[in-house]
Amino acid sequence: xxxxxxxxxxxxxxxxxxxxxxxxxxxxxxxxxxxxxxxxxxxxxxxxxxxxxxxxxxxxxxxxxxxxxxxxxxxxxxxxxxxxxxxxxxxxxxxxxxxxxxxxxxxxxxxxxxxxxxxxxxxxxxxxxxxxxxxxxxxxxxxxxxxxxxxxxxxxxxxxxxxxxxxxxxxxxxxxxxxxxxxxxxxxxxxxxxxxxxxxxxxxxxxxxxxxxxxxxxxxxxxxxxxxxxxx
Amino acid sequence: xxxxxxxxxxxxxxxxxxxxxxxxxxxxxxxxxxxxxxxxxxxxxxxxxxxxxxxxxxxxxxxxxxxxxxxxxxxxxxxxxxxxxxxxxxxxxxxxxxxxxxxxxxxxxxxxxxxxxxxxxxxxxxxxxxxxxxxxxxxxxxxxxxxxxxxxxxxxxxxxxxxxxxxxxxxxxxxxxxxxxxxxxxxxxxxxxxxxxxxxxxxxxxxxxxxxxxxxxxxxxxxxxxxxxxxxxxxxxxxxxxxxxxxx
Lengths: 232, 248
What we know:
- The complex is a heterodimer of chains A (232) and B (248).
- With 232 residues, chain A is mostly helical.
- In chain A, 77% of the residues lie in helices and 3% in strands.
- The longest helix of chain A has 42 residues.
- Chain B is an alpha/beta fold.
- Chain B has nine helices and ten strands.
- In chain B, the strands form two sheets. In chain B, strands 6-7-8-3-9-10 form a six-stranded mixed β-sheet, with helices on both faces.
- The longest helix of chain B has 17 residues.
- Chain B is globular.
- The mean pLDDT of chain B is 94.
- Chains A and B meet through α5 and α6 of A and α2, β6, α3 and α5 of B.
């Protein structure tokens, strides 16, 4: 085990500091970053599904509202959205910790983006599938849930997994509203070791990478399972 | 039993069906023939409201829908539940096995007992000669096999009327026979059928009545021996000549 600094081409790599910092940063990742991602994504997907269904329906006023929602979220930076929600809630006399505040912001963000993925997937299911549902006597709703969505969701798994992995990294923005997650923890450690701060950030990047790598393996497994009824 | 009166359908400025009257008596097989773009597929799709006619009355003795008025969704669903449809491109549910495809209507729509439906579905598969394929997914079947599953799925809801939209047009020539054989069995069993087809010989063999349609109107109709062997109208003659002598 390396216990001291290592000199590499004139650069001094602080191994000891990196080893000491690895667990505290990883633990914040497991305790905060991953739950924040999972909860936000879960809520976001529910919002996305509702949004997609409204946007393909013909309920005019509701469609309008959801169109504006998607357009506004897609048209503004996530960091700005995060700040707005963080400062807006107190204005509305809602006291909320930074962590749930971040969940609200990320869920709304995922909801808008993922709704576009789900909407496109629904539209990609051939029209003949709707007709096949109708001709065995199904209603619109039944056809949607029994015939169209199962096929659409399979199509949407790869792009949704991308969004999910993207979200893992985007949660680092929560550090800006004082959520002590993976990145903010690194900042805190870095602040007491200013000379070696770059190595702390490299360590943080490495931990994000490991998390995302494991997730991408899970993604492949899921896609393989879902592809069982199509030609390979 | 089933009748259409004054059926009109336009797509934008294009009038596809001008004013169609037709009647399908119980147990009869009607073949609809016509050149491409004649409106024959649109006509068939209007019979179960996959296309919503602009005008006209479509329906069974005990359930008619008047499309000249505003029609409720529920009325369309009721109309569709009385007929089964077989598509040119099969349209099987790719995420369900052969057996699940057939059981979907009876179980999910008709809310019938799953065990009984399963037995019936296996019988239907036996009828179309695919009993041993029940647990496969559609992609594992040939076109002819998929279409036979499509027929079984349509039969499973016990429709009063079976509609076939060019059921063999997407098939390789050597697979057409197996589908036509199943359809002939159905005709022999007394199913009421409306078939849009290009198979003149087949129409001649199983149809009780042939309807020749062109430009959105019924040009000629009657028993197959008259319409197909001895057409009166020039348009029918030209069409039959083209189909029977494609290289002329």
